[in-house]
Amino acid sequence: MNGDPNGSPDGVGDATIPVEVVEGEAHAGATDAATDAANDAATGAATDPPSAGGAVAPASETGAVNEAAADGELARLQARVEALEGEKKDYWDKLLRTAADLENLRKRQRRELDDTRHDTKQRVLKEILPVADNLERALAVSTGEPDAVLDGVRLVQRQLLQALERLEVVPIEAEGQPFDPNLHEAISQQESDAHAPGTVMTVLQRGYKSGDRLLRPAMVVVAKAKAKVG
């Protein structure tokens, strides 16, 4: 058998593979493996976030953490709602109590005002009734003499003025005084030589004051200057 020194013993020639081709295929295989490994690492990093220690946490654990946080927030909100409901009830109770206190205050003030009016009326009547009694006595003992009747009436008038003074009611002095629109009400004007113009010359009805308050003005006639003749 004549063998090929570079071939098989059988003389069948094997094709020779160049060294460059073998090295190229090996390099390509290594590159593809490195690319696949990089892609797998990137995909895993995007899917599972790293844990505090750098390890990737499973998705189930992340969901459990989020659910626990939501439950805690819900519990906090429910507690806040219950607290607000309690505050609302307290405020409502206070409002009702305040309204009741105000109503009781109004009723008490109304009663006090009625009592004050009643006491004032009684005080006035107690002062006036004796005057009416004396007037009846003066008329009963009258002998028909004008002077006796006049003296009795003057006595009653004096007693009445004293009663009014005790009630802090005083007459307004008007005659001979300058006309004051705050105290006097002019009924008419008359020419007069005896009175200066603008002076009260006659009092038709006496006015009265209670303290600094005017009960009624005095009705008066006011003097004016005589018209010039010619």
Explain this structure to me?
By secondary structure, the protein is of the alpha+beta class. Among the domains are: 67-168, Hemagglutinin Ectodomain, Chain B (Alpha-Beta Complex); 169-210 and 220-230, Nucleotide Exchange Factor Grpe, Chain A, domain 2 (Roll). Helix content is 57%, strand content 13%. It has three helices and six strands. It has helices at residues 19-47, 59-140, 146-166, and strands at 169-171, 184-191, 200-205, 208-210, 213-216, 218-224. A three-stranded antiparallel beta sheet has the order 1-4-5. It has a three-stranded mixed beta sheet with strand order 2-6-3, with no helix packed on it. Strand 4 (208-210) and strand 5 form a beta hairpin. It is elongated and about 130 Å long.
How is the secondary structure organized here?
Layout: H1 19-47, H2 59-140, H3 146-166, E1 169-171, E2 184-191, E3 200-205, E4 208-210, E5 213-216, E6 218-224
Parallel strand pairs: 2-6
Antiparallel strand pairs: 1-4, 3-6, 4-5
Helix pairs in contact: 2-3
Name the CATH architecture of the domain at 67-168: Alpha-Beta Complex
The ordered string of helix (H) and strand (E) elements is HHHEEEEEE
List how many beta strands DSSP finds.
6
Question: What is the helix content?
Answer: 55-70%
Beta-strand percent range: 5-15%
> Can you list the strand order of the major beta sheet?
1-4-5
Q: In angstroms, what separates the terminal alpha carbons?
A: 189 Å
Figure out the total of helices: 3
- Secondary-structure class: alpha+beta
Largest sheet composition:
3 strands, antiparallel
* Average pLDDT for all residues: 78
CATH hierarchy, class of the domain at 67-168? Alpha Beta
What is the fold named in CATH at topology level of the domain at 67-168?
Hemagglutinin Ectodomain, Chain B
Principal-axis shape: elongated
Radius of gyration: 61 Å
Low-confidence stretches: 1-17, 44-48, 50-54
